[in-house]
Every structure is written in C-alpha cells, then in structure tokens.
C-alpha cells in the first residue's frame, strides 16, 4: 500500500510542469509511417485541432481523443478508451452523451487527404480534470465513420492512425496510470 501511495505522489509531482497553450502532434499509421500532423491550440471554448492527413480511404472517418498517450501499432489498443473524465455515454448525438474525447467525423477527399479544423469542446491543454495534455492522451482516427450513438465507440471500426498528445518535457514512460495496482505490478517486473 505504501509503495502505491509513493508511486502516486511521484506521478503527481512529475505532472507539475509548465503549462503549454499549443502542441503539435505527429500522426502515424499502423505501419509506423508519419501521415500528418494535428496542431492543437488553447481556445476559449475548448482545444482547436488543425488536422492535416494523407493516405486515408476517401470518405468519412471517426476521430476521438483516447485516454492513454500510447500509440503502439498496428492496432493502437494501447491508446485505451475514449477520454471520458465525466463518465458520460459515447456519442455526440446520444442523449446521455458525450465523451470529452468525442469529435465530429472527418472526411478524406478522393485523394485520401484530410484538411480539417475541429474543436474539442470543454477540453483544455492546461492542467486540470478536463486537460488532454496533463498526463497525456492520444488522437486516434478510425476506419469507419462514428454513428454518434452506438456504444462504446460509435461503431467506427479499426483504429488506423494515432498520435500521442503529451507534454514536450515528458519522458516516454507508459500508459497513464489510471489503475495504480496495474502500475505497481509493472514496477515489480
Ligand atoms: Zn466516445
């Protein structure tokens, strides 16, 4: 128990770094190729994303902020679930929704390119409960479009592109330790 407590203190201390109001995220596909960038900036109504991507199938794709700053291909399950600090249901059209990390679908043109501007409403890059940067998260693109209501992820299919959102000075340690016991087990290895 004491070890877990110490690790939690260490984690909290390690998070007390400088606030950032902008962040460029590199986006990678399942083969590990960089296929674009997401420029994040702090706005009064949330975090703006300027997204540039290439190499997608033409048409609509789901895009979500996930809870772990960890993009391990090819399936990107390491990114965890949609970021959901408020415990809501998934979906921008769901009456009990939505996750903080839920976003409108993006559309790739006939050449497979995406140029989009999105707002993650109510999110912030500054520290706090609604932060997408403190502790780290990830931005994940899906193979199919998000239907806006199905649980848990809008029936949007496989994760095809992922980018880690984390502070510049953060060492690449591990998943965000939302489960201290799991963190503890990994320390024992
Ligand atoms: Zn969601």
TrEMBL record:
GO molecular function, a single term: superoxide dismutase activity
Region forming the signal peptide: 1-17
Keyword Hydrolase attached: no
InterPro entries, alphabetized: SOD-like_Cu/Zn_dom_sf, SOD_Cu/Zn_/chaperone, SOD_Cu_Zn_dom
Span of domain Superoxide dismutase copper/zinc binding: 35-165
Protein keywords: Oxidoreductase, Signal
Family statement drawn from the similarity comment of this UniProt entry: Belongs to the Cu-Zn superoxide dismutase family.
Name assigned to this protein: Cu-Zn family superoxide dismutase
Species for this entry: Virgibacillus natechei
């Amino acid at each position: 128990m004491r070890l877990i407590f110490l690790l939690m203190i260490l984690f909290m201390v390690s998070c007390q770094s400088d606030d950032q109001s902008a962040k460029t995220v590199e986006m990678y596909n399942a083969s590990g190729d960089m296929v674009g960038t997401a420029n994040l900036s702090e706005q009064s109504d949330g975090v703006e994303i300027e997204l540039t991507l290439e190499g997608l199938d033409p048409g609509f794709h789901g895009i979500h902020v996930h809870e772990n700053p960890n993009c391990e291909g090819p399936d990107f399950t390491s990114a965890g679930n949609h970021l959901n600090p408020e415990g809501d249901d998934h979906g921008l059209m769901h009456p009990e929704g939505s996750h903080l990390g839920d976003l409108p679908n993006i559309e790739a043109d006939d050449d497979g390119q995406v140029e989009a501007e999105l707002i993650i409403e109510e999110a912030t890059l500054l520290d706090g409960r609604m932060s997408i940067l403190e502790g780290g998260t990830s931005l994940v693109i899906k193979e199919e479009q998000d239907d806006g209501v199905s649980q848990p992820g809008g029936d949007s299919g496989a994760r095809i592109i992922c980018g880690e959102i984390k502070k510049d000075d953060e060492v690449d340690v591990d998943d965000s330790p939302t489960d201290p016991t799991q963190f503890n087990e990994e320390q024992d290895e």
